[in-house]
Amino acid sequence: MKRYGYGVDLGGTTCKLGLFETDGKLVDKWEIPTNISDEGKYILPDIAEAIRKKTAELSLKKGDLWGAGIGVPGAVDQNGVVNRCVNLGWGVKDVRGELSELTGLSVRVANDANIAALGEAWMGAGKGFSSIVMVTLGTGVGGGVIIDGKILNGFNGAAGEMGHIRVNPDETVPCNCGNKGCLEQYASATGIVRMAKLRLQENASKDQKWANAKKDSALWHHEILTAKDVFDDAKAGDAFAGKVVHEVCTILGSAIGSVCNIINPEAILIGGGVSKAGLILLSELEEGFHQSVFHACRNTKILLATLGNDAGIYGGVKLLLD
Fold first, then answer.
1. Residue 39 neighbours by CB under 8 Å, 6+ apart
2. Model pTM?
3. 44, 245, 276, 277: least CB-packed within 10 angstroms?
């Protein structure tokens, strides 16, 4: 008899859901809006209703279902209790207990970046490796660590916060976390744009070559500059955009090298929207990586993640099966 499980990836705007067979085959996937009104009190009931509807639509019985695994944007303890999800309006919330009561199913809960890493390790670019680190480059920088096929949660569920590794002690602008000089301020999509604008606004370089490159750069001509624009212009041969890409990727590579020195994973996977830049991202971070990585960790593979926005739902159901 086939058994099924639900993978749920809860974000501040949308909630992604997937129905899987227990061998990892994706049967169906869909999204619902995340209703964060009234301190997010409708979120879990909405997820439970979405699961109920899909179960009825496919004429599945309760005995056919293994349960549901859900990733949430916050620190999660071993009991499935979330301690503060600012983007959802939650304080301390027993996600596991509440969703289980609403659905009548077994429920597992973990941080959203961690389940994305678990999904990639199971069915994505990390398949075949026992230990991986995933770095997600989006609006912020997130991360997850998988050791011997299991999520490394840390003391209170906050392990894998790659974005808040301090990479510049001289930074004067605070990160969203309150600290200064975090990786997120340089290698996230918003950080890359910030660095491009800073470099464009600097006084003329003493190096006439780069002063001319800045003057002629296509980066000046985007109505709303994005990280994609910076990488696309660099790929097109814009020397100044290339200089910005090299700078931010060197910082990223150095941080990844430091992570490898501590975790010693078989592979580093890079996902998130910025990873769509492709091979230029991997080639440009090599210098920073090799400058900081310990010699015994130099053979760590650095790969692009492959599951995209589906990584979280794959990870959710894998969390359940484990």
1. 89, 90, 91
2. 0.88
3. 276
